[in-house]
């Protein structure tokens, strides 16, 4: 098998992508405190982006990925998108 056909699926050696700003204090949609909770920095169904709790993202978010949103755990480590 040639090297160009191998796909690296391991993540052990890759650094975690982290939230670099101050952690958001509350959901921009419902104003629920986000301290100690996972959150999404994402596009809303209405167009603008928002810091959202997971519930608001399910209801009003536009998905995850480039141009849609990123999901972070309570410590600011990116876990999706």
List the helices and strands and how they pair.
Blueprint lengths: L38 E5 L5 E4 L1 H7 L8 E4 L5 E3 L1
Antiparallel strand pairs: 1-2, 1-3, 3-4
Give a written overview of the molecule.
The protein is mainly β and 81 residues long. It has one domain (17-81). Helices cover 9% and strands 20% of the residues. It contains one helix and four strands, in the order ββαββ. It has one helix spanning 54-60; strands at residues 39-43, 49-52, 69-72, 78-80. A four-stranded antiparallel β-sheet has the order 2-1-3-4. Strand 1 (39-43) and strand 2 form a beta hairpin. The termini are far apart.
For the structure shown, list the relevant keywords.
4-stranded antiparallel beta sheet; 1 helix; globular; 20% strand; 4 strands; 81 residues
């Amino acid at each position: 098998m040639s090297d160009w056909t191998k796909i690296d699926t391991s993540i052990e050696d890759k650094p975690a992508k982290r939230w670099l700003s101050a952690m958001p204090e509350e959901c921009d949609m419902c104003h629920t405190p986000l301290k100690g909770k996972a959150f999404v920095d994402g596009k809303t169904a209405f167009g603008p982006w928002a810091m959202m709790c997971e519930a608001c993202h399910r209801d009003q978010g536009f998905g995850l990925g480039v141009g849609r949103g990123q999901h972070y755990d309570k410590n600011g480590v990116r876990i999706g998108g």
